[in-house]
Design goal:
CATH superfamily: P-loop containing nucleotide triphosphate hydrolases
Order of helices and strands: EEEEEHEHHEHEHHEHE
Structural class: alpha/beta
Mean pLDDT: 84
Strand order of the largest sheet: 1-2-3-9-8-5-7-6
Oligomer: single chain
CATH topology: Rossmann fold
Number of helices: 7
Strand content: 25-35%
Largest sheet: 8 strands, mixed
Length: about 220
């Protein structure tokens, strides 16, 4: 794999940085923005019509990042859950209506994808079929799929769950750790997930530095 040191990323992402570090293989790019002490880019910009997936452990900061940086382009399952929670009796466990929330989330995502809009999608990392679905949609459009992967320690993720007052079971968290761990190891070895044109690795500092994830206007 060829290592590139450049002052600006390729046109498909347009990330300005004096210390940009990227590795390219057969046109697929890994960008590692970790361990830069918050001196990362303030914006990630992708081509119009592209699709972006934000993955990471529960509590890693995916929803926080999307609320701050994705704007109207963000599709977050957490938003769907909160809308349903507001309508349900307070004593009704989420597990009872979780399947309905998931159906509503994916139905909404399908509608947005069919519109042809550029989309930034929250993904827990364990649902590989979601990335496969988005990769097929990107190919159908003749556009690209990009993965933003948050790399935080399990302890940091658990602290994030505690801070939001919403945790996951030990079993579910172990599943997430395995899935996200596989994604990280594959990316670091240069094997990007199937269908992804690029992977951008973010630690907590890099994610906190981002103020915008967006798309260029169509020509």
């Amino acid at each position: 794999m060829r290592i590139q040191h450049t002052g600006a990323y390729a046109a498909s992402t347009g990330i300005p940085s004096q210390r940009a570090r990227a590795r390219s293989r057969r046109g697929r790019i890994l960008r590692d923005l970790r361990e830069r002490g918050g001196r990362g880019p303030r914006a990630l910009t992708f081509a119009a019509g592209d699709l972006v997936v934000v993955s990471g452990l529960p509590g890693s900061g995916k929803s926080t990042l999307m609320k701050r940086a994705a704007g109207d382009s963000g599709i977050d399952s957490q938003d769907t859950r909160e809308r349903w929670e507001a309508r349900m009796p307070r004593l009704l466990p989420y597990a009872v209506y979780r399947p309905l929330v998931r159906i509503a989330h994916y139905a909404g995502l399908r509608r947005v994808l069919r519109s042809g809009a550029s989309v930034i999608v929250h993904d827990c990392g364990t649902q590989s079929w979601v990335r496969a679905w988005l990769a097929r949609e990107a190919r159908r459009r003749g556009r690209a799929l990009h993965l933003l992967l948050l790399d935080v320690t399990p302890d940091t993720a658990r602290e994030g769950q505690h801070a939001r007052g919403r945790g996951v079971s030990a079993y579910a968290f172990a599943r997430h750790r395995r899935a996200v761990g596989r994604l990280l190891r594959a990316a670091e070895s240069g094997s990007l997930p199937h269908g992804c044109a690029s992977v951008t690795l973010l630690d907590r500092d890099a994610a906190d530095s981002l103020r915008r994830i967006g798309f260029r206007e169509a020509a």
